[in-house]
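Section 5.1 Outputs to date
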Amino acid sequence: MDVHIARLRRKLGAAHRHRIVTVRRVGYKYVPERRESTPTASQGRI
């Protein structure tokens, strides 16, 4: 399994390889990128 994840990280490239995180004694998980919050009307935008 480790070889498969290593190959997947390599294919994702340096910009996205950190998205697959190792969780000890569980496996792996995908961490999606955070989106910037958009300003709302309550923040003074008209």
